[in-house]
Design goal:
By secondary structure, this protein is α/β, with parallel strands linked by helices. The chain is 38% helix and 20% strand. It contains 15 helices and 17 strands. The chain has a 7-stranded mixed beta sheet with strand order 3-2-1-4-15-16-17, with no helix packed on it. Helix 10 crosses helix 11. The longest helix has 25 residues. Pfam families: Amidohydro_1. It comes from Brevundimonas guildfordensis. This is Amidohydrolase family protein. Keywords: Signal.
Length: 438
């Protein structure tokens, strides 16, 4: 009886924890009475319109924008941004807060605990927030560390952006996302429950991730540049496996995004009803047709491609031979891929894959998007209204409007003329709280 009582207690606590996570995710915006007046010289409140308003005051109560007034008004708690350009907090749809590529990355997997990764993630979260990104999607990290960090940010215990977390990627045995290049006995220790083979096992992997607390399901539909194996960049899941993953994830209320480089993996995933593609390096005309037919999103992560190509071709290359070969093959192709996708009318959401490149450098993606043919406004839209629609958080992020969370940033110059202004953020407010004011 005592054992049964313990089991029941554990089950109740687990259910309570799951309900608490859902409640935190869906909690109504606070309307506490403390009021701030943010006086703004130039304001891009709604990037969808592209209209820059002048000489406005944002009235913020608690963590919510309650009014946008004409002129500079208010007394008491006044924030002076009259000489600045203000826009919504930015959204990065692809980061890995718990890690960052370095010469010790492969060793770190053996020496760092999940608790260590959460602490490192807290440091990276603060850098990301200071860079102007008030929302991120973390797509691939140890369940325990990233879910703990996500929940700590929600509670206000840790300074960081709002985190939509996938946790461990659903991957095939031996493929990208599984452990590769270590001793056989170590491989089994490093491999995750989310690694699967066969349609039924892949259903189990998705359900395991949902049970663990995943907000979104991330899979690795093809090989990857930084997996230490010479397995290429093409499709790794079967069509049956992909269909089972998408079906069960959608049944459980989760969207599915896929790391995918090769066109075969991209197209197979989109045919299975997948929601978005990360990277998309070798997408083809069929891919673009499927993107548009499905309403799917592309997250091109140009900064990651640029970073790995520079490391692999540089004098201080710390990648393994297998990683270097794929970096030199795929990295230089990503800019042209994004240009073709943009010309073809594919919806693009901003994402950097930071953790490959350094956290805090996220805004360097904007200049690369402009090089791929987007206008500065379109690049900004990809990191505001576009990313919010992609991540299904349009009611919470992407605009500055009455009833929305008070997430906003400021720069000195005009990013519609020079998008690199977003690399020099001088003010960050998230949920009505000022985190940076230079």
């Amino acid at each position: 009886m005592k054992k049964l009582a313990l089991i029941v207690t554990a089950a109740v606590l687990a259910a309570t924890g799951a309900e608490a996570r859902q409640a935190l995710a869906a909690a109504p915006i606070s309307a506490e009475q403390a009021t701030k007046f943010v006086q703004v010289g130039r304001l891009l409140a709604d990037p969808a319109s592209g209209r820059v308003l002048r000489d406005k005051t944002l009235v913020i109560r608690g963590n919510q924008v309650v009014e946008i007034r004409d002129g500079f008004v208010g007394d008491g708690d006044v924030v002076d941004l009259r000489s600045a350009f203000v826009l919504p907090g930015l959204i990065d749809s692809h980061v890995h807060l718990g890690s960052e590529q370095s010469p010790t990355s492969r060793l770190d997997r053996l020496t760092m605990s999940n608790a260590d990764q959460a602490m490192v993630g807290a440091r990276h979260a603060r850098r990301t927030l200071n860079a102007g990104f008030t929302t991120v999607a973390d797509l691939g990290g140890a369940n325990e560390s990233i879910f703990a960090l996500r929940d700590a940010v929600r509670r206000g215990d840790v300074a960081g952006p709002r985190i939509i977390a996938a946790g461990s990627s659903v991957s095939v045995h031996g493929g990208h996302g599984d452990a590769n290049g270590y001793r056989e006995d170590i491989l089994h220790v490093l491999s995750n429950e989310s690694v699967c083979s066969g349609a039924e096992d892949c259903r189990r992997a998705v359900r395991t991730q949902v049970r663990a607390g995943a907000d979104i399901i991330k899979i690795t539909a093809t090989g990857g540049v930084l997996s230490n194996t010479a397995a290429g960049l093409n499709q790794q899941f079967t069509q049956d496996e992909l269909a089972s993953i998408v079906e069960v994830a959608h049944r459980m209320g989760r969207q599915v995004t896929a790391h995918a480089h090769g066109a075969d993996g991209i197209n197979a995933f989109l045919k299975a009803g997948g929601d978005s593609i990360e990277h998309g390096t070798y997408l083809d005309d069929e891919s673009m047709r499927l993107f548009k037919a499905n309403g799917a999103w592309l997250v091109p992560t140009l900064l990651a491609g640029d970073f790995v190509a520079r490391v692999a071709s540089g004098p201080d290359n710390f990648f393994t031979p297998a990683q270097s070969a794929k970096a030199l093959e795929a990295g230089p192709k990503m800019l042209d891929m994004a240009a073709r996708a943009h010309r073809g009318g594919v919806k693009i959401a901003f994402g950097t894959d930071s953790g490959v490149s350094a956290h805090g450098d996220n805004a360097q993606e904007f200049a690369l998007l402009v090089r791929a043919g987007l206008t500065p406004l379109q690049a900004i839209q990809s990191a505001t209204i576009g990313a919010a629609e992609h991540l299904r958080i349009s009611a919470e992020a992407g605009r500055i409007a009455p009833g929305m969370p008070a997430d906003l940033i400021a720069v000195a110059g005009d990013p519609l003329n020079d998008v690199t202004e977003l690399e020099r953020v001088r003010f960050v407010m998230k949920g009505g709280q000022v985190f940076r004011q230079d």
